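A.,

Following up on our hallway conversation. Structure tokens first:
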């Protein structure tokens, strides 16, 4: 291998490490404020560099899962990839499944125009809502989100604490000054007490006398 090829290989490896590090940081730095929730209709955005086109670019779909730990979402019927699983007699079965998309690659859809749009947060009638920048239309949160939040276990009278008992104040602040004085008095009393003398063990001479 010539020196030029070796330098090219080292440079490509360094570039791959840099791009991999950036991609890892992109997924590990968690987004604090999310504008896309479960059940939203979104559109897949084109790449910024324009080097290659995503097969689902410009297509719309419904968000079926939000993965906040990876800053990603899963859109129904979009970004399909081949997966394999073990079948009968040890054979591999291929199937298609949605793969996660980074949340920066999707955008909400305006309910009035049907096109993608940026949003702003506005407080209307005491409620914080998502408003489209292009038309000013309110983008309400899907009904499936409220139904998903309501899937909680019903209250259990045997294990759940009653509300009035939870709100009851049971902690009593101790009197730290009295505790310190008590410990100091005990220490002084211990120091004032006479030291105990060791008992003399009788010897053979004393027994003989």
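Then the amino acids I'd put at each of the 209 positions:
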């Amino acid at each position: 291998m010539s020196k030029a090829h070796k330098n090219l290989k080292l440079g490509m490896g360094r570039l791959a490490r840099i791009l991999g590090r950036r991609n890892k940081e992109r997924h590990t730095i968690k987004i604090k404020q999310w504008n896309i929730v479960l059940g939203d209709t979104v559109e897949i955005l084109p790449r910024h560099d324009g080097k290659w086109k995503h097969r689902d670019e410009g297509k719309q779909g419904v968000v079926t899962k939000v993965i906040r730990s990876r800053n990603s979402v899963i859109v129904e019927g979009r970004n399909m990839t081949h997966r394999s699983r073990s079948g009968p007699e040890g054979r591999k079965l291929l199937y298609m499944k949605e793969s996660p998309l980074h949340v920066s690659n999707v955008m909400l859809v305006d309910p009035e125009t049907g096109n993608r749009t940026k949003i702003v947060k506005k407080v209307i009638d005491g409620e914080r809502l998502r408003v489209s920048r292009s038309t000013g239309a309110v983008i309400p949160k899907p009904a499936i989100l409220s139904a998903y939040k309501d899937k909680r276990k019903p209250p259990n009278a045997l294990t759940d604490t009653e509300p009035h008992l939870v709100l009851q104040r049971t902690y009593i602040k101790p009197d730290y000054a009295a505790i310190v004085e008590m410990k100091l008095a005990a220490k002084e009393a211990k120091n004032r007490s006479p030291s105990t003398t060791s008992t003399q063990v009788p010897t053979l001479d004393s027994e003989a006398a």
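The first strand starts at residue 41 and ends at 44. Curious whether your intuition agrees with the design.

B.
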